[in-house]
Structures are given as structure tokens and as C-alpha cells.
Write a structure and sequence with these properties.
Helix 11 crosses helix 12. The protein is an alpha/beta fold and 501 residues long. It is 42% helix and 19% strand. The strands form six sheets. Strands 13-14-15-12-11-17-18 form a seven-stranded mixed sheet, with helices on both faces. A six-stranded mixed sheet has the order 8-7-6-9-10-20, sandwiched between helices. The protein has a two-stranded antiparallel ribbon with strand order 1-2. It is built from 17 helices and 21 strands.
Amino acid sequence: MTDLASNTAKLAPHLAALRETGIAHRIGGQDVTGATFTNHSPVDDSVICEVARGTASDIDAAAQAAKDAFPAWRDMSGTARKKLLHAVADAIEANAEKIALCEAWDTGQPIRFMAKAALRGAENFRFFADRAPAARDGQHLPSPTLMNVTTRVPIGPVGVITPWNTPFMLSTWKIAPALAAGCTVVHKPAEFSPVTARLLIEIAEEAGLPPGVWNMVNGFGEEAGKALTEHPAIKAIAFVGESKTGSMIQAQGAPTLKRVHFELGGKNPVVVFDDADLPRALDAAIFMLYSLNGERCTSSSRLLVQESIAEQFEADLAARVSNIRVGNPLDPQTEVGPLIHETHWKKVTSYFDKAKAEGATISAGGTCPGGPGHFVNPTFFTGASNQMAIAQEEIFGPVLTAIRFKDEAEALQIANDIPYGLTAYVWTQDITRAMRFTGGLEAGMIWVNSENVRHLPTPFGGVKASGIGRDGGDWSFEFYMEQKHIGFATGTHKIPRLGTS
């Protein structure tokens, strides 16, 4: 990373190119345009470019292109797909700086985090590329009369709908396993962050991906998104976003019996017991909430802290939060950038008044810097109870709510008393307590004495309102592929005869 001035200068030619060309749909290897909408940067509300506004007819064309490309892609050997996907990963790494600069400006995410976005995206492609040759492997399950074998086959053309918070990495996280499995894709990026989705499909095609295997249609959820979830040629929908939207997608896909995979919202607890390594717990709680502008589904947005240590822990946390650097996301010193859009900024800042009305204390932040852009000062609420809106609702911004507990039983009750169940974080030196407590937590992913550290072979997903299904390792292939059983008779076993006298 260099300084702000250097990064701004490096971004300038990329912005100039975007303003000149805009962002078109990519269907069957061709650019398609029509009606457009304007994409603005959250940094200063300046215009980035015009973006094609997808319609049902655009989705239909993309779905047909994916359907036409599916047989050849399905029948390509896993080894050949592996080679192609590694070429995509190589090309992603070659464009890492461009991806990071554009995503920081498009989303407001600090360059200190976006600098790794391309590398994580390339890692996703390499991980699933290496699994492509074995994706169809099955089992041998002999019975007395049959040699039973299983295999997996790709489900067909799939729809992928990705969010605006870390769009590049999450697009690779969904699309790489779909391609490795042998599926073709129609991708609908979030309308608030379309830039790097366009870069990604360009990179893939330049690396040799055949036309129509991966198609992209931009636009709004109620238009392009709805048409995608309802289209009969699309066999499954992978979606990352709000729980309410997931419910709508499930209903829209029901008439065509679509398979769905949802990574949805979270209001995740970080539980700090009095025997924890408190300096490390403090670092992790701050990082897992305030990194990525607090706009992450796995953020530790509820701090559950034991009463005996709460006063000092909260004071130390408030002091640290007040020192978090807010600024231009292209500045390597910035720790929190602007929120994605004015609509989201209004949502997040509305919780300042809700906290006051409910009787919580604003121990840090609760204000916004002056000037242009959708900036919010990192905020910390204390004196909260779990029944408050600030403890129950997903704020999805740099806002943390602290709740005190007396003992393990109360901590578990508070942690689980929420509609969501994506992640949880537990800090204790007592291994027996850790095993007991994690066993009772209602969450799909739990880290003990650690922040969220992803390991790609492990399952990623939540319970309750936080999602359906799992990503990662073989779990991704289970979504994008169908199991097939074939039984071969090993002899002339007796077959029941009907219709004989």
C-alpha cells in the first residue's frame, strides 16, 4: 500500500475508463446495454459510471445463454476445468491492485482490507479448481444382489446473487465452486457495488472461460433479481444478503422448485468470561465489529461481558473505539470508511436515537463527521439489555452493543435469545466450559479464543434466520450437484412375478 495521493492517482485512469464505457451486462460473451442507472461513490457521492439496468428479458437471455453453454461445460473433464479456473486465479492476482482500488472507491471499504480481496478471491478459485477433478466421485455400496455406485452430476444453470459489502470476494466464493462443479452461472451483483463484478467476469473470459458459461446481469432486486429467481431454466439460487430478502427469494423460487442456498443476516455474540485473556478478547471484539466498516454478516455486534470485568472492559473498549481512524478508504491509514449508500447510512444512524430512547448509553461515537460522504463515527452502546432493538436488530454498521451477564447460564440464554444464528465467539481459559458452552450455542459457526479465521475446507453457514445450507469444502459441491445412484445386478436374483396364474 502507498499513500492516499498515490492511490488516488492510480485509481484515476480506471475511473476514467468506467465513465467512458459504463458497465454493461455480459451475456453469452457479449456486452448488452439498454436502460441504465447511475452508480455513485460513497466517499463523496461523485458519479462513478452508468450501469445497465437489467430487465426480465435480459435475465431470460442470460439464462438461455447459460442453458446453451451447460452441456459442453458439464461434459468438460474436471482436469480441464481445473486448468481454466487456475488461469482465472492467476489473472485475478495479476489485477489485484486495480481490483482493490476500484472496490474501495465503489464500496467505501478501506484499502487496508481490500488490498487482500483479490488474493482471497484467487484463493477461492484455486481451492475449488483443485477439487474439480474429483467433484463427481462417489461411493461403492454393495448389497447382496447389486453393486451400488453413486456419483454426482452438476445441477444445471444456477443463479448467484451477491451483496454489496465485500462484493469481489463473495462473488468468487459463490461462483468458483459452481464452475468447478460443472454448472453454468447467471450472476446478479448488488446494484450498490457493480464495479468489481464487471472486472471479475472480464478477467475470467480473458483467462479463457468459454462464452455463456458465466453471464452477468446488473440491476435491482425487484426487477432483475426477481426475474432470476423465477426463471424456469435456473435450477438453483445462491444468495448472500438480508434474511427478509432470502424469504422473498424462497417464495419466488417455489413454483419452479428451486434449490436455494442462503447466507443471511446475523446479530452475533462475542461472549467474554472473566477468566479470558482480556487483551486478546478486546482486540478480537474490536476487529470483528469495526473492520470492513461493520458491514459484515459475521461481525460480533453483541458484546456479552461478565459483570465482574464489565466496567473496565467496556471502558477500555470505548477508549479504543474513539481512536479508530475514519477517513478516505484509499488512505492506508483509514480503519473505517464511509457506509455503502445514503439509504444504509440513514438506517445505521437511526439507531443512535433508538439507543437513547431505550435507555442505553452511547459510550463512544453516536455522531457523524462533517463533509460529504456517508461517514459514521464508530459507535459503542453500553447499559443495554437483550430486549432492546439495538440488541435484536442487525444494524450492519460500525455499531457495537454491550450487554452484561452474571454467569454461564445467563450468558447462554442471552446469546441464544435472538432470531439469528450465524456465528458466535467465546473467550474463556476453561476448556470444559468452552466445550459445554459451544455445545449449547445456537450458531452455525463458533470460534473459541479467536476472531473469525476462515479455513476453506470447513462448512460456512448459519441456523435460524441466518441461512440455509453450507459453503466451503465438499459442502459447496453438495449444493451445486445432484447425487445419482446406479445399481448393477450381480446375478439373477429372484424378481417377484405379477400377472401369472
